[in-house]
Amino acid sequence: MTQIGVLVVDWPTVYRFGDYTVELVGAVDRDEDLHSLRELFAKARVGTAVHDIPGDRPRGEDMDDDLRNTQYVQFTHGDRPVTAWYLLRGYAFFQDETAVGMDEGAYVFRAGLFFIGTTAFYQAGFAVKDMEDVEDEKDDNSWGI
Amino acid sequence: MPMQETSLPIDATALKITANGQDYSILLDTDTFDRAGEDGDVPILPLCRGDEFVGEVLEGQWKKDWDANIDAFTARILSGALEMTGVASVAGTWGSGWISGQHPIPLMDGTEITFEMETPISDTGAVADRDVYYNFYLTPKTSTSPNGEPNFLMLRIDISEVGLIYSLLDRVATAFTTHFDGSTYDGASVRDPAAERFTIWRFVFHDGVDGVASPSNVRHMHVYLKQGIDRATAEAATENELGNGTQDSPYDISGWLVDVVYPNYLILSQNTTYFGTAIGSANGVDSTYLRVNHPPFSLKYDFADADVGKGDVELWDGDPDVATSIQVFDEDHIFTNDPYLQNDLLRLHVNEGIVTGLDLYFWDTTGVAWSLPFNELYFTQAGIQTMQFPFLKRIISISPEKIGIEVKLCDDGTDDEDYFVNLTITLRRGMHHITVEPTALFPPDDCRVWFINTPTYRFGYAGDDEVGDDDLTIDGYNTTLTDNFLVGFDDTLTEVLAFMANTKKPTSGNARFNASDGGDLGLEDLTLGELLASKIIFGLTPFSLVANLFEEAEDGSRGTATLVTDAAASPPAGPNNAVQLNAIGDYQVPNGEYSAYTFTAGTDLPVGRYLAVIRARYVVQEGMRMYVWQDFDNEYRNEENAKASKAITATFDYYSVVFDITASDVANTRAFAVVAEKVDADADEIRIDYHLIVPIGDGESWPQDFAHAYLRNFNKPKRVFTR
User: Fold this and answer.
1) CA distances (Å), B100 to each of A73, B2, B63, B397, B700, in order?
2) What does residue A80 show for φ and ψ, rounded to 5 degrees?
3) Contact B299 A66 (CB under 8 A)
4) Residue A120: its pLDDT value, please?
5) By CB distance 3.0 to 4.6 Å, which of B69, B191, B579, B628 could disulfide with B659?
């Protein structure tokens, strides 16, 4: 099982590893799940970037305000990548087609991920800001409360 | 005190705030509280942002208490100020009363706390040992006396027969340090019988900077003061940093053991005149505001792999409980079924093209299931055209923290342009309400906004003693608008409180809150400008003991009072549907005639601040007195701390007092009574129809809490931080 954020997908059949990257090919049972995955990756291509840093590991960048392209990806079967935070990079699928050698009704997709780091080194949270002076907020709060 | 609430993912652990490289641990269930949802408990961090002390009722998270040596302790808000009164039971013996805030303040680098305090006198007269104190504290979380805490920072206004002196002290592991005392910002530890009594204090907390002069090289605080002979003069005064040559700000606080604190106000008195023997006394103390500003910070947490996504805000194409429905992640999604928006606590179904098609559900913690849809919201134009057929126009934004959609409400099942209102509807993580912002109305006109329920809730509270009752076909019209919310509920139906609140106080002549026929809540006759400037929240919050919020007077205790049939009383069919008080009585003895609704704290009603409402009238002109009594401690629990006189009329109307149920009351299952008695001993008659209790605020998840917290805005984009 692979879980990308909240979406669970069938076991990928192929992993291809690169420099902090993982490309996986998998399948889901329903056409609707294929499109849910597509939506999850909808802003990935234009909303992310990977920067090569001379002398250092490459750095991923999620340009979405709420880091929608950064997901916690869990791999729970053998011969797998590390469960960690990943940047969503790319997605492709073939509408109404199944891969050669796969059961009919398996909807195939290919997804690209960039490794950010495990929870041993990274943790989730919020950057809280714009807690303005209460007095100023009276402009939006005509009760004065 | 409106909280700045931050919702966290379900089962988030190891919470901490990081600011300026320093970590502040946030303790679950001490600094946070939970809201129960479908996937588990949603932790809420309710940061303190202060209190303007404006509205109808002192906010529920200010926990009130007093010791045995003070009489007539009261604490309430009145005309934009916190008012506290109380006098020593025995002259010369200290008695105290206090309110303790339950929302935390992490003392980060750059945190500022500003508060105003004023006293009625600068000296207590000629007699010694008749001193009075008015204190502000920062302490660990407490509801017992802040003065007894082993660790605190205290600003004390100390008044004796010699005069007034301001003192800034801290207590660390019970050891006191006086940082400053004086009657002005540069006063040299001397009392002044003519000191200016209106003061505005500002505390600014900073981390230390290596290499600079002490104490700025360690954790320290700056203290500033403005002072005047009245409020306006104090506000306009020059702000000065404390310093008299030997006790100069900033002050070293590097030894403090607590860095997440809570605010408290306390009065201490040896005096039988100050600070006032009754609510509303000119001898009381006031504070017009407490303001807390936080610097930007990071809020971090850990979670287990199995908890990913729990508590997220979700948008679904189709009913989420149906297997064929799919979750939507992209703003460009094309829907094949109705949209559903949910966050584990609340669910909105946009039933497209269907009358009253904006259906709200809540997660019923009693039944452990999603409720039936029974609340709809819609708009009407000046009572002429009703717009209640929704159509989803677009998805504005999607994230696990917040989802915004644009919905168009039309006057019929056709999406056209003759009559419509466009709405931006937003649902956030951990909230029991949706936010609705009208963005267009056509044709432009005055408008009404409705939040109705089917089956109809019997009761609606519109504020300022205005109650609607469906059984009696009574509307509660409120044009005073002291506060910004309405509440609806029914003691015989689903265990929930419905509420609606607005950010903009309407000022046009006909605008009002309406509890129509009870629990149909409405904002009426807003002008187009007011409507488009409004952000309205509609919510449902579970309340499991709703059945105990109402009792017919004839079903309660009445001593020797008789029952009568009154055509205007409830139930309308009678008979014997009202209690008639012909003679004076006293529930506390007990003797004579009275009407009392008795209940047990904890078993019947939880901790919180309530309105006790009595529906009453006179037969022959007479007054009524009402109060809330706690039997075990023989104490008044209503704000007045006494029997409150009410000038009732010849027709039935509603009269209320504010009262508290404390954690101690609940732990010890104390007996309570809401009581009505005649004022005079003559034979004039009054009739009591029923007792109604309206939950106002508990500092967490009651209508006032949501209505006020929503007025505090901030941004919290999601981040992944390096450890």
Assistant:
1) 44, 14, 5, 39, 15
2) -135, 160
3) no
4) 95
5) B628
Q: Say what the pLDDT of residue B301 is.
A: 97
Higher pLDDT, B41 or A98: B41
Q: How far apart are CA B328 and CA B318, in angstroms?
A: 10
What tens digit of pLDDT does each residue of B149-181 get? 999 999 999 999 999 999 999 999 999 999 999
Q: Does B697 have pLDDT greater than 80?
A: yes
What's the Cα-to-Cα distance from A113 to each of A36, A44, A51, A57, B585, rounded to whole Å?
17, 10, 14, 15, 78
Mention every residue, 6+ apart, whose C-beta is less than 8 A from residue B191.
Answer: B158, B160, B162, B163, B164, B165, B183
Predicted local distance difference test score (pLDDT) of residue A142: 82
Find out whether A15 and A98 touch, Cβ atoms under 8 Å. Answer: no
Contact state of B52 with A134 under an 8 Å Cβ cutoff: yes
Angle at B172 between CA B169 and CA B178, to 5 degrees: 20
Q: Is the pLDDT of residue B715 over 80?
A: yes
Torsion angle in degrees (nearest 10) through CA of B430, B707, B545, B39: -10
Q: How many whole angstroms separate alpha carbon B626 and alpha carbon B674?
A: 7
In 3-state terms, chain B is what percent helix, strand and coil (to 5)? 5, 50, 45
Compute the average pLDDT of residues B481-493.
95
Do residues B24 and B259 lie in contact, with contact meaning Cβ atoms separated by under 8 Å? yes
- CB within 8 Å: A132 and B503: no
The identity of residue B239, as a single letter, is E
Element holding B704 (H helix, E strand): helix B703-709
Nearest residue of chain B to residue A4 (CA atoms): B308
State the amino acid at position B552 in one-letter form. Answer: E
Q: Report CB contact under 8 Å: B332, A42.
A: yes
Residue of A nearest to B309 (CA): A6
A3 touches chain B (CB under 8 A): yes
Count Cβ atoms below 10 Å from residue B224 Cβ, excluding itself.
17
> Could you report the per-residue pLDDT of B351-396, keeping only the tens digit for each?
999 988 998 999 998 777 787 766 677 777 766 788 889 999 999 9
| ipTM exceeds 0.90 | yes
Note the pLDDT of residue B385.
85
DSSP string, A102-124: S-TTPEEEEEEEEEEE-TTTEEE
How distant is the Cα of A107 from the closest Cα of chain B, in angstroms?
16
Whole-angstrom distance, CA of residue B279 vs CA of residue B298: 43
**To the nearest whole percent, how much of chain B has pLDDT over 70?**
99
| B267 neighbors A111 (Cβ within 8 angstroms) | no
Nearest by CB: A122 against B289, B483, B721: B721
Find chain B residues with C-beta within 8 A of A31's C-beta.
none
Q: Rounded mean pLDDT of B279-289?
A: 95
Query: B500: which strand partners?
Result: B486, B538
Residue B104: CB atoms within 10 Å: 24
Mean pLDDT over residues B49-65, rounded? 95
Give residue B444's pLDDT band: very low, low, confident or very high (50, 70, 90).
confident
Amino acid identity, position B426: T
pLDDT tens figures, B528-578 = 899 999 999 999 999 999 999 999 999 999 999 999 999 999 999 889 999
Q: What share of chain A is helix, strand, coil (3-state, %, to 5)?
A: 10, 40, 45
Q: State residue B541's pLDDT score.
A: 95
Which residues of B are less than 8 Å from A117 in CB distance? Answer: 722
With CB atoms and an 8 Å threshold, state whether A43 touches B330: yes
Residue B309, SS3?
coil
Q: Tell me phi and psi for residue B92, to 5 degrees.
A: 95, -15
> By three-state DSSP, how is residue B322 classified?
coil
Residue A74 touches partner B, C-beta closer than 8 Å: yes
Smallest Cβ distance to A141: which of B398, B402, B503?
Answer: B503
Given CB atoms, is A88 within the 8 Å cutoff of chain B? Answer: no
The answer to whether A48 faces chain B, any CB pair under 8 Å, is no
